[in-house]
Fold this sequence. Notes:
231 residues, mainly alpha
Amino acid sequence: MLNNLHEVEVFFGWIEKKIEEIDTITNEPFRRILLLALLDTLAKSAFPKDKPGKRFVKLIDSYSGWLHSDRVCLIQLRYLLESQVQTECADLKIEVEMRLGKWPPKGIGRIPWSREVDPESVDLCAFKKGRGAALIEKARYPFLLWEMRNFAIHELRTIGLALPDSDDFEEPYYFAPLNLETSSRTWGLNFPTKVISTIVLNCSEKLKLHFEQKGINPFRDFTDEPGWYLH
């Protein structure tokens, strides 16, 4: 008989209840903030010794089963490459520009699903050397979700100008800025709220099963109160 099964039921029962409560909220930015906060909670229970950003990404990679977790945002990778000296990652820069050159012209054509234009990191294995490997890693979708989480929770900023009714989309997509004449941006990547919700659900289900099988107490690294409170 494994220990801590009661604690597992209580912890994930609480998570399930919070998901149900969040689903009743009609304000999409607030829903996103709360869903991303739940990912923080799950990540701490799964990898309590890691720093917040690392465990957030590791949670998605390990437990979400997300088909896009290894996908690399070419626009973000180009942005990261722009900060490198001319001789660094020259071959990766050429590859990224070649791939971006195949995208539709600005404001013309159908708005693409991200899977149609962004490669997976395994497709860029030839460029995973030196600094290139770190940049590719930072452009993966789980890292972008972590950045979105930071903007949303710390600054109440909504990243992306979502299309009408697009929060029901089940996969990431690119959108064109609404004011194409004045914007210098060609495309923006958006993660619909439904995508984030699905990631939370999948992580919760798989992590619960893992804790049940291993007899892990999910509360083991959560304190009842912060260190400065009532001391």
